[in-house]
Design brief:
The structure holds two protein chains of two kinds.
Chain A (H helix, E strand, L loop, with lengths): L2 E3 L4 E5 L4 E3 L2 E3 L6 E7 L6 E7 L6 E3 L2 E6 L4 E6 L8 E8 L8 E2 L3 E6 L1
Parallel strand pairs in A: 2-12
Antiparallel strand pairs in A: 1-4, 3-9, 5-6, 5-10, 7-8, 8-9, 10-11, 10-12
Chain B lengths: L4 E3 L2 E4 L5 E6 L6 E7 L6 E7 L2 E4 L8 E4 L6 E5 L8 E8 L9 E2 L3 E5 L1
Parallel strand pairs in B: 2-11
Antiparallel strand pairs in B: 1-3, 3-8, 4-5, 4-9, 5-6, 7-8, 9-10, 9-11
The chains are: A mainly beta, B mainly beta.
Chain lengths: 115, 115
């Protein structure tokens, strides 16, 4: 069975601080995909990144960066110099590669960035 | 281009009533997913369609829930004899195909409240 754990329920930071959101996953698949989604107060899930299980290179996109470590089954997300607009609930998710590929989500981490 | 749309945005009903929730996927997307998100939780898979057929309905909680996608585009999630525990946000997502690497694009959701 697949499972995603986001141990941090809520995080509060002051603007311009860096913050890391943790994600640990479980799967028996040898090939899988990991995702991060952002859910702002408006409610719509916004795709941030997809990572293939064979690609362990870290990725940076502007103020966002992702650290994928297969050895520890973790896919952590860091926001550098946080801004108030980053306030949202962030979800980590996992899918397999077969035809049946619903996403398995963690419970999410609510990030509040205070001005 | 137009994203995934869902109607209604809010639905309030009484216990025991029947409701229909509609999803319009992105044009050309063959895979369509329904998820349910309860307060403080991540989205949970309900059912997914590849084309017109339900490829996996293992997430439907019981036989009061049913979904159709007769022409391979618009989908309707139907809930019979609603119960208070059905109250949640129902999310629809679509993707180019059901392969795991495809990003799923989410709609804004329908907030269902059963009184």
């Amino acid at each position: 069975a697949q499972k995603v754990t986001q141990a941090q329920t809520e995080i509060s930071v002051v603007e311009k601080e860096d913050v890391t959101l943790d994600c640990v996953y479980e799967t028996r698949d040898t090939t899988y995909y990991l995702f991060w989604y952002k859910q702002p107060p408006s409610g719509e899930l916004v795709f941030l990144i997809r990572r293939n299980s064979f690609d362990e290179q870290n990725e940076i996109s502007g103020r966002y960066s992702w650290n994928f470590q297969k050895s520890t089954s973790s896919f952590n997300f860091t926001i550098t110099a946080s801004q108030v607009v980053d306030s949202a609930v962030y979800f980590c998710a996992l899918s397999g590669v077969s035809g049946n590929t619903p996403l398995v989500f963690g419970k999410g981490t609510r990030l509040s960035v205070i001005a | 281009g137009a994203g995934v749309s869902q109607t209604p945005s809010n639905k309030v009903t009484e216990k025991g009533k029947y409701v229909e929730l509609r999803c319009d996927p992105i044009s050309g997307h063959t895979a369509l997913y329904w998820y349910r998100q309860s307060l403080g939780q991540g989205p949970e898979f309900l059912i997914y369609f590849q084309g017109t057929g339900a490829a996996d309905d293992s997430g439907l909680p019981n036989d009061r829930f049913f979904a159709v996608r007769p022409e391979g585009s618009v989908s309707t999630l139907k809930i019979q004899r609603t119960e208070r525990g059905d109250s949640a946000v129902y999310l629809c997502a679509s993707s180019l195909s059901s392969a795991g690497f495809n990003e799923q694009f989410f709609g804004p959701g329908t907030r269902l409240t059963v009184l």
